[in-house]
Structures
1.
Amino acid sequence: MSASDLGRGAPGSDPVKAVVAELPCGACLYRYGVYGISLRSEIPLALPAQETASPLEFELRIVPASFFPDVARQVKFVSGPPAWYQYGFLPDGAVYYRWLDNFEFLLSADGHRITGGWSDGTTIEAFQVYALIWIVASALIRNGYEPLHATCMEADGKAVAFLGESGFGKSSLAACFLHAGHRLLTDDLLLATKTRGGYVANPGPPRLKLFPRVAKTFLPANPWGTPMNSLTKKLIMPLLDHQVCWTYAPLKAIYLLESPRKVSRAKEITLERLPVRDSLTTLLGSTVRREMVDPQRTQRQFLTCTDLLAQVPVARISYPRVLESLPKVRDMILADLPS
Amino acid sequence: MVGGHLSLDCSARINNDNVVSRELEGETVMLDLKSGTYLGLNQVGTRVWALIQEHGSLRRVFEELQKEYDVPPETLKTDLLALVDELAAKGLVSLGATDERK
């Protein structure tokens, strides 16, 4: 069966149900490991292949753009998001996501099946970024996990996570770590899972979203990246094998990057341990898809974040947003990391 | 408290159906399940919360706090009842008109 067969249900049937019925799991030929879970895909992805499935497995199916108009007609859109991004629910509980003129996704009600497509004007690399961050994050939440909006590096066997809103410099700091020979665990989405030995950070996709100037400075030998979208100059930078940590690492510390608006160029670099309440607020604010609100999830966010806080220290680091300051920030973090 | 005056003779019970709490580094953070809001108690508040859980009697809570903190009894009583009143107003603690556990 080809991707173009999707959505052709029997006359009058629900096209969403038709997809479920028509496409057997075996159509997803590729299996990858990402965020500590398995992802089966119809198309090859820039992820490490996985031979044995993890207990939690998602599927990614690709459909042509013609699949979605019928789906969208059934969607009850949730008001509020900006016009370029919309989402809503189908009667069966599935969620539909649309980045106008770029990507569309359907996440099944059970959170295991992602059906996606992209328009001619964009790239498979950008599609993967949206699928593997936004949609997989939603799938994880639907399966009872609380991923964080974080970038995470591995240094000497320890994982260190950076929190902060988009544009706060998480990826730039990560690039500076890479420049010093440390390895990327994940960019933008962190699933920290609890083990007997404490929390571990699971590896995400082996790429980093960077502005060209940062990429030139810290990753001069890397292949040049692919533009993210027309709204940003950020590039999707593929990483070399030795720049990627392919397995999980113990999460030793979390650093909140202070807002660039609160930091003057002349300001010194400061690092301060956060009080419990501020740490909790920080972690809760770094959970993703916060529009997905229900009492059960609110309770889970609280329990997850407090449990993480009980084991992993959170500090705030404030530094001027000039590239020259990043090596000092990196060294300060490395010196601060618990053993 | 319905139909009564808050005093040390009241009993207090934490509404576990309404709140999830966790102690971290000597402080308590709480999630009010009804409103979805997060609350925090400092170290003294955390001790009060633990004593309410343990004893259920505000007088017993008061007596324990008297042993632990060097403050005038009237100040302690005022502060304790103010905190309990606030917790009760948020629905996190239920009060009984009389202390049945005396």
2.
Amino acid sequence: MWFFRSPDIVFGKESLSFLNNLTFRKILVVTDSNIERLGLVELIKKELPEGSTLHVISSVPEEPTLADIKELVPEASNFGPDLIIGLGGGSCMDASKSLFALYERPDLDIYDITPLVPLNLRKKARLILIPTTSGTGSECSWAAVLSDASHKRKNELASPEIIADYAILDPALVSRLPRSITRNTAVDAITHAIEGGSSQWHNVYSDLFSEKAIELITNNITSALDDSEPEARENVHIGASMAGLAFSNSQIGLAHAMGHSLGAHFRVPHGMSVGLYLPSVVDFSERSAQDRYAKMNSLFPVKYRKSGLGATLREFFLNIGQPLFVDQCGIDSIDYGRKIDSLVQLAEESTGTVTNPREAEGNEIADLFRGVIRGEE
Amino acid sequence: MPKFPSHEWAEEYVEKLNSNTSYQEAGKNWEGDITFVIRKDEAMDSDAFLYLDLFHGQCRKFTFTNSEEELPKPEYKYIGKYTNWMKLINEEIDPIQGILTGKFKLEGSMMKIMKFTRAAKVMVNTASSVDTEI
């Protein structure tokens, strides 16, 4: 017995106009100052139902902490929305999911946002997520990652009840994404697709979305990076949401466990950090996921395809500029080497470690961390 | 070959757990007790309880009983029907998926245990390694 969970997904050109059909009266938009400065909140505002009242919280920081979210609760409660819209990248959408849960249930311990505890949400509001990047898949998933600054930890919160009611994938919101963000977020999505389609919990639904996501992203990312084909960004955007559905209905794996661990110690874009470990995690897991990896490998464009998925990923990442070594991420290798014990400990605490196709012991995880130091691979 | 659940089964399980290096590593920072609650169903006629006092990758003490009142109040309880426990031991159910699908229930603070999912999984895998009478 297992489940397939998904928000209602509105996608394609002008899909923001869907907002106009809704009947909500008090709408809270949760976003960050960059998104507001870029005028994306204005695009939403134009589409809101007539007569509705809008309040905007645009103070979500990059990689929000548990404390950041708790601070936003009084402002949300004072406004009393019947709809919360999370607008932005992973940080804004994850913040919106957590804020939604705490607005609904101020009594809730944030660590109770796990699939093991019934939350009984949706007594006050509904949740819509609108991504402005193509990668996190947060708009389709029931997970939220929040940092715990004091413990240098990325907390993986998850509950089927924090999944959005609607996800809106409007390509207009990603049409001017900078090249580096386009690449980093796409690598995140590829990692979701590969780990979601091969984890110990993978299933026919996650396989389906994983495979289509790999096909859409890897066949369109080069054109999206060059802005050479108008449809490419839309295809990557949809592919990223499918990758979100893949891992959300299965599980993440060791590359995510390690990437979250790296992100807790060093300021590295999330997609870059998980992508850094993906090829070696795939090599490590190969014998436990041969069929899945073979199928995935066959979906990459022929020009990148090698005899194994790990090698294909390295070729593909080289081509799009995703780092393969830690120093290419702007991290000092010596400082990184000193922190390996702590990196391993954090990775071991992630569920991705137990759902990876091949479970890893601490010493094997340490080897994988060391494997991205140039000269020690 | 011990029958599940029984004192003999618990003894063998704890022996295997304490000699499992994967558990010693995954549970090296764990301090806390847990009771496995095996609820009666059509295949078993009374509830059974296996209390485990776990500390730094070792089980320091265990108690098997049919009366929960004899046990200290544990930090965690992992609760399921006998038939589902047998499926878990036979690796037909994943311990975490078992909770997500309502076949098992976990009581206790989530904040702490979510950091020890690997230790929890090794504990269940160890149960599968006990040669159990069907």
